[in-house]
Structures are given as C-alpha cells and as structure tokens.
Amino acid sequence: MIKVIAISGYKAFELGIFKKDHPSATFIKAAIKKDLITMLDDGLEWVLISGQLGTELWAAEVVFELQLDYPDLKLAVITPFLKQEDSWNETNKEWYATVLAQADFIDSVSKKGYEKPLQFRVKNQFFIEKSDAILLFYDQEKEGSPKYIYEMATQYQNNHAYPIHLITFYDLQSIVEEEEQKRMDF
Fold this sequence. Notes:
Elements: E1 4-9, H1 23-40, E2 46-49, H2 55-66, E3 74-79, H3 90-102, E4 105-108, H4 118-130, E5 133-137, H5 146-157, E6 164-167, H6 169-185
Parallel strand pairs: 1-2, 1-5, 2-3, 3-4, 5-6
Helix pairs in contact: 1-2, 1-6, 2-3, 4-5
C-alpha cells in the first residue's frame, strides 16, 4: 500500500515552459491527477515534493485541487536546503510562496543554504527512503534533471519493494487526445 508518494520530474525550463499556467501545464497536471486518484482510492495519505519549479509545483496544485474531494490528503514540501528560491524571479517566488502557504508540512533536508550539488543527491535519497513509491514525470528518451532521482530509485528497487510510476511524453500525448475527444463529444 502506498501511503506516501514522492513526486518529481522535469523543471519547467527543461520543457521550454516559462509560465506556470502554460497550456502544457494543464496536461501535465491531468496526468499527475490521474495517477494520484488511483493511489488515493488505495489509501494514499501524503504527497512529498521538494518545491522545484515545474512538475513539483504543478503536483502541489493538483494536491490542493484533490483536497476538495479527499480532505485527508496532505502535502509536504521538503526542500534540499534553505532558501532554494533566492535566485528565482518574483513571479516564481510568488508561486512557490502560494504553495508553501497551503502545504501541511514544510522543512529542509539541509539546515543550511546551497553549498554543493551533493545536497540534491542527499534530498533524493531522503525522498526515496521516506516514501512508499515515486511518481516521476520523466521519459528516458529526453534527458533531464529527473534522471538522477530515477536512477537512484531504480537502484533502491534492487533491495526494496519500491514502485516507480512514470509519466512519459507518450502518456501526455494520450491525455491530450482524451481531452480533445471530450471537447469534440461536448
């Protein structure tokens, strides 16, 4: 049973998305929602993100939407280090602040600011060890930052029952087609 799921994936800029409400975000959120609803029906209680721009903050928005029908669902934002948003633009800082304001739990793995890339690896390890499964927006055909947590999760699977749920570009294409079909039927 999956009680805690870690969610990660591409950062917005890796997808060429520079606005949180870009039309593509609608389909990414729909894919996340589809997977989460299945898990909620099986007892999901917590969603764990690190607050990265892109997939993770869109996942937070999905959680807030789902909380209307699943009030027991909780969101934890556990950053790799303190003040990760310091170098972000004002619009992204506001988006992040909105997510933090609604989160059920907030903490940082490292109690210091950014020092070195190892902090991201430590965060990935923490997420894998503290969750029952991971949901990743990642497609092996398109390299990107999710590759690192994906590789760590697959290694972890060698000794643990740890489901890895992937959202690929093929999955997104299916959702786009489903949405188009709904519009045509309407």
